[in-house]
Write a structure and sequence with these properties.
Elements: H1 2-67
């Protein structure tokens, strides 16, 4: 008689476990969907931050090159630029 009660207890336990797992499966699907959405949003924002950082780097390099003193070009050496101003 004791084994019948034990078998009934195991049966009820398995049914309850099945119901809990079934409900949990739906919650896991919802969580997975939310996690995928969040991951896509974070990746999008990370890409935007990287693009902005690259743009700032380009702007800083451009400003640095503008502020750098430009070398004075050396005059062209020709016969007219020599002491007499005439061709030899």
């Amino acid at each position: 008689m004791l084994y019948v009660l034990s078998a009934a207890g195991v049966g009820v336990g398995l049914v309850v476990l099945g119901l809990v797992l079934f409900r949990l499966g739906g919650a896991v699907k919802g969580f997975r969907s939310a996690a995928d959405t969040m991951r896509a949003d974070v990746e999008s924002r990370t890409g935007m931050i990287r693009a902005r950082a690259a743009a700032v780097g380009v702007a800083v390099r451009d400003l640095c090159s503008r502020n750098r003193p430009q070398p004075v070009p050396e005059p062209v050496r020709s016969g007219l630029n020599e002491q007499g101003g005439h061709l030899p």
